[in-house]
Design brief:
The structure holds two protein chains of two kinds. By secondary structure, chain A is α/β, with parallel strands linked by helices. Chain A has eight helices and nine strands. Chain A starts with a helix and ends with a helix. The two termini of chain B are 16 Å apart. The chains are: A alpha/beta, B alpha/beta.
Chain lengths: 236, 815
């Protein structure tokens, strides 16, 4: 019996070590990703365990163009083609956290881009509907999300300005592309009690984020929330 | 070089007639035209303000050609005619091919800081565009350095060509589509090729025919579309599904395109309270950047959403106002005025082709202009309009002083904005009626920058005039992402303040100034930061706004008219300390690019101008410190003065293209003439007593005349301003052509081994000088930059007599 226990323990340990080694081999960026979450996200004040878990799980390097993979976990946005960028990891985590997503939520994303934000949201919410206006990006994001196994994300090529009327209302709306105004159709498709976030700024720099909440009576309240770097600058 | 290629052969003694003269004329013209056209093409591909880069590239090409001629002199001397013919033949296609090739270089300016691997691509891009200048410089240099014609005739051809190239380029912008602009220098080069087909040989050699034929074929092949940086507004909009080009026009002030796509929805800062529909829109672009919006059928019925933008505030304060708007924002500005009860609208827009596009090409889409509105479009620059005086206005509108789109990257940090200087704002306030307001709107930034700098500027100008307390003469409203500030010479009345409050209530915007009530919890740090900044700018001592320690928020003047430059160099360590790895986005890309241009151009100049010197057949003697300092000073000083004249020319002539043509063409022509006659002035006494001090005095006098005479000159017609500009630069430019050939001539007698070194050093500092001049304009101002140029000339004058010292060797014979 004792020999059996020792053998089982040995085998279990062997399998665990082997699995860990294999996992590391399969995901050569794992350490970088964990360091990203630790240094760029947790340290900057993001604390929602579901958001942190999602950021640890989604392989960002698979969603950026191959030539930028070495920079995938750096604290900066990167080009993804069509003049669009993938937001820096902190901004994605910040936008996800502020929406207070929970399992079962129905989320609309406007501007699929690389699919990274949708993949992160899909780890937490029930369903994610994402609209991308550029056909090439929509196709690539659809493929990427399928390969990541994000089955609760549906990508549609179309003009996100009009939202996704058939699937409305939404508990949360994430507009990932900076815009000059909040589209009135999106405000209509936000459920009472719903939250919405939209970045303001040009490529490579999110200036601030517009956060909207629709209360139980359907009244909107708005405030601009700042990424940590801006708060630091204001406090200088 | 100090006076470009024209100075390289003041000692030509032999003279022969031939087809060299027209070839030199045409190649010189093609080269200058290429320089002017590249300003437009790179402005479209990337962003404006590439002038220093292009001048650096030209200087690199010309400088390298001078060094190459000296190094290869013994070989070229065997068959100078044949080498000349081949250089001309190769120069022709290079004007087109270099740009085509540069489009294939995977060069993304926005990754230069993040990705060091993109540096070689940038160097290659820079090098490729310098090749045509190298060939053109070599062609003219060979003709002058070797006895291929009479010196004075060749000089005349070179100067005439330079002037012709600069001044023919301007009308070409009107008649040649942007994609085909480089066909103009290609065509000139082709004609030059025809001139040399059988030069210095009996028959038409097959190789030359083939090369000229290739140029001819190149002339006929379709142009390659200009590849824009993918982040540019036009590039992004063109990729939208179902995009349709409605109109394309080009002129001296820009390349203008109008696109329609169902995915265009533009309503900057629109209130959440607006629940209606935004009609389909066409987007208008100037050099690839979004310039305005035309709502479909808006002329028949101004869209309601225009009343829900922050910029609508002044219309709610004043009834039936007479309005002047600076720059035509499609039809949106006009429709906003029409929809909000304006009695008269004057739009000041210098881009004639852009106005024609809106008035004619888009008339069917826009539904024309509102028929009930009294509308006048003045096709002139903003400062020209203001300088001329005339009727007063109730609303003077300066919209979009900060942008949300491509230009938010700080690409305009190095661009001159003369309307937003203290002088510009003073002129604008002077055009207000007694009840009139100056209205400024733009995007909010964190920490606030454009908004605060503009409030500082207006406050400073209002305080100059004394009168009622300045804080009572402002109203500032904040939208969710944008702001609008109105200011006037008199305090606002209670009724007007009540109207502003009603506007805020209707739109959901907030009244930030005058301050109302204590802070509430609902305000986030962004809003608090903005309120604090506005309070500090209007009521507090300057320098106390949030972020003011990091950014330069002082008012700008015409002496350094860079409203969009906020970066303080001394703040860089603080940025790094505060933001760690996340500080890059706060750098303004215009400045980053200027710094990188300087670095890359200096590196290339070192490789092509300095490294070859030890291989000089004469032994590569350095000539000692006097030679090094003398020729460095000439290279740098020439650029400091030329570029500063160019920048003040932008104010007087209205846009960078006209200013570059007048400044580059004028300096090249006049300095060339100065070089040609330098032999008569090169006695030590004349140079020391008259030429060097003359340059310092005349450059300063010319600049001061233009700068301080601007209020008078701006009111003159375009022809008068051109004439005044050229007259002001001419005396100094003429003398500036002398020190380089005079020194070479002096060294030929006693210090000839150092001549290649002199060429190289001079070229190196000329290349760097273009960027250094821009840095000087940004941080020390035009006056100081011109003064620095003058001092460098005086320093060179002190060293002129010492150029003969050094190791003498056998003269290279007939440079």
């Amino acid at each position: 019996m004792r020999v059996d226990r020792v053998a089982i323990a040995f085998l279990t340990g062997f399998l665990c070590v082997g699995a860990a080694l294999e996992a590391r081999q399969a995901d050569p960026y794992l350490e970088k990703r964990l360091a990203m979450v630790r240094d760029q996200i947790e340290k900057e004040g993001i604390s929602d365990p579901r958001v942190l878990g999602a950021m640890r799980e989604v392989p960002r390097h698979l969603l950026v163009p191959p030539e930028y993979r070495p920079m995938a976990y750096a604290p900066r946005p990167l080009p993804i083609g069509e003049g669009q960028t993938i937001s820096q990891p902190y901004v994605v985590a910040f936008m996800t956290e502020i929406l207070r997503l929970k399992p079962g939520d129905r989320v609309l994303e406007v501007g699929t881009g690389s699919g990274y934000q949708a993949a992160v949201a899909a780890k937490i919410a029930g369903e994610v509907y994402s609209v991308e206006i550029f056909p090439t990006l929509a196709d690539r994001a659809r493929r990427n999300l399928e390969s990541l196994g994000a089955r609760n994300v549906t990508v549609r090529q179309g003009d996100g300005y009009y939202g996704w009327e058939e699937k409305a209302p939404f508990d949360a709306i994430i507009v990932t592309c900076a815009g000059g105004h909040v589209p009135p159709p999106l405000l209509r498709q936000l459920r009472k009690g719903g939250r919405m976030i939209m970045p303001v700024g040009g490529p490579f720099l999110t200036q601030n984020l517009v956060f909207l909440e629709k209360d139980a009576d359907g009244a909107l309240s708005q405030r601009n929330v700042l990424p940590v770097v801006f708060v630091r600058l204001l406090g200088h | 070089m100090s006076s470009r290629w024209s100075s390289c052969a003041s000692l030509v003694t032999d003279a022969r007639y031939g087809r060299v003269v027209p070839a030199v004329f045409l190649v010189s013209a093609a080269s200058l035209a290429n320089e002017i056209f590249l300003i437009r093409l790179l402005s479209l591909r990337f962003w404006p303000h590439f002038v220093p880069l292009i001048i650096s590239q030209a200087m690199l090409g010309f400088g390298a050609s001078g060094v190459a001629l000296h190094l290869l002199r013994p070989r070229i001397a065997k068959t100078p005619g044949t080498v000349f013919a081949w250089v001309v033949l190769l120069a022709a296609p290079s004007f087109e091919l270099a740009f085509r090739a540069s489009q294939h270089v995977p060069f993304d300016p926005f990754l230069l800081l993040w990705d060091p691997s993109s540096w070689p691509a940038f160097a290659l891009f820079f090098f490729l565009l310098a090749v045509p200048f190298f060939l053109a410089g070599a062609a003219v240099g060979i003709s002058l350095s070797f006895p291929l014609g009479r010196a004075h005739v060749l000089y005349a051809a070179s100067f005439g060509g330079t002037a012709a190239g600069a001044f023919l380029a301007l009308p070409a912008f009107l008649f040649v589509p942007t994609e085909l602009l480089l066909r103009v220098p290609l065509g000139m080069g082709l004609l030059a090729s025809v001139c040399v087909l059988s030069y210095s040989c009996r028959r038409f050699p097959a190789g030359r025919l083939l090369c000229a034929g290739l140029s001819a074929v190149l002339f006929l092949v379709p142009p390659v579309p200009i590849s824009l940086t993918p982040y540019k507004d036009l590039a992004i909009m063109k990729r939208l599904p179902a995009t349709e080009t409605l109109s394309v026009r080009a002129g001296m002030t820009g390349d203008f395109r109008a696109l329609y796509a169902p995915g265009i929805h533009h309503a900057p800062g629109l209130s959440f309270r607006f629940e209606g529909e935004i009609p389909p829109q066409a987007a208008l672009f100037a050099d690839g950047e979004l310039r305005g919006i035309v709502p479909r059928e808006g002329g028949k019925n101004p869209p309601a959403y225009l009343g829900y933008l922050p910029a609508a505030l002044p219309y709610r304060i004043l009834g039936r106002p007479a309005v002047v708007q600076f720059s035509l924002r499609g039809t949106e500005g006009i429709l906003m005025a029409a929809g909000n009860g304006a009695s008269l609208v004057t739009v000041v827009e210098p881009a004639t082709e852009y106005v024609r596009m809106i008035e004619h090409d888009l008339a069917a889409f826009s539904g024309g202009m509102p028929p009930a509105l009294r509308l006048e479009i003045r096709k002139e620059g903003g400062r020209n309009f203001l300088a001329r005086g005339g009727r007063g206005y109730d609303i003077v509108e300066l919209s979009d002083v900060s942008s949300l789109t491509f230009s938010s990257l700080g690409i305009h940090a190095t661009g001159e904005t003369y309307l937003l200087t203290r002088q510009g704002i003073r002129d604008a306030l002077a055009r207000l009626t007694d009840r009139g307001v100056l209205a400024v709107s733009g995007w909010l930034k964190s920490p606030p920058r454009e908004s605060v700098k503009m409030l500082h500027t207006i406050r400073a100008v209002l305080e100059e005039g004394g009168g009622a307390p300045v804080p009572a003469r402002f109203i500032v409203v904040r939208g969710w992402g944008s702001f609008v500030a109105v200011a006037r010479r008199n305090p606002f009345t209670a009724g007007e303040l009540a109207a502003a409050k009603r506007f805020c209530r209707d739109t959901g915007f907030t009244l930030v100034w005058p301050e109302a009530g204590p802070p509430t919890d609902s305000r986030g740090p962004e809003e608090e930061g903005f309120r604090e900044a506005v309070h500090s700018a209007l009521a507090g001592p300057p320098g106390r706004s949030p972020g003011e320690g990091l950014f330069d928020l002082r008012p700008v003047t015409d002496d350094s008219p860079y409203f969009h430059r906020f970066l303080r160099l001394r703040s860089l360590p603080a940025f790094r300390r505060l933001l760690g790895d996340q500080w890059f986005p706060f750098l303004e890309w215009g400045i980053v690019f200027l710094a990188l241009s300087l670095a890359v151009s200096v590196m290339l100049a070192a490789v092509f101008l300095l490294l070859p010197l030890p291989f000089s057949p004469a032994g590569g003697g350095s000539g000692g410190l006097p030679v090094a300092i003398y020729f460095s000073a000439l290279g740098l000083a020439y650029m400091l003065i030329e570029l500063t004249f160019l920048k003040i020319g932008i104010l007087l002539l209205g846009d960078p293209i006209r200013a570059a043509a007048a400044a580059v063409g004028g300096f090249s022509l006049l300095s060339g003439i100065g070089s040609a006659v330098s032999a008569k002035w090169e006695s030590p006494e004349t140079m020391r007593r008259w030429v060097f001090p003359g340059i310092a005095v005349l450059a300063a006098a010319g600049f001061l005349t233009l700068f301080h005479g601007a209020p008078l000159l701006l009111a003159k017609e375009e022809g008068g301003r051109f004439l005044a500009f050229l007259s002001a630069l001419a005396p100094a430019a003429f003398l500036m052509g002398m020190p380089f050939p005079a020194a070479l001539s002096r060294m030929t007698v006693a210090n000839s081994a150092a001549i290649p070194y002199a060429w190289g050093v001079n070229g190196f500092f000329s290349v760097a000088g273009a960027s250094v001049a821009s840095v000087g304009s940004l941080w020390i101002g035009f006056h100081a930059t011109v003064a620095a140029g003058g001092i460098l000339y005086l320093l060179a004058g002190k060293l002129y007599l010492r150029l003969e010292s050094g190791t003498s060797s056998a003269p290279p014979g007939g440079i």
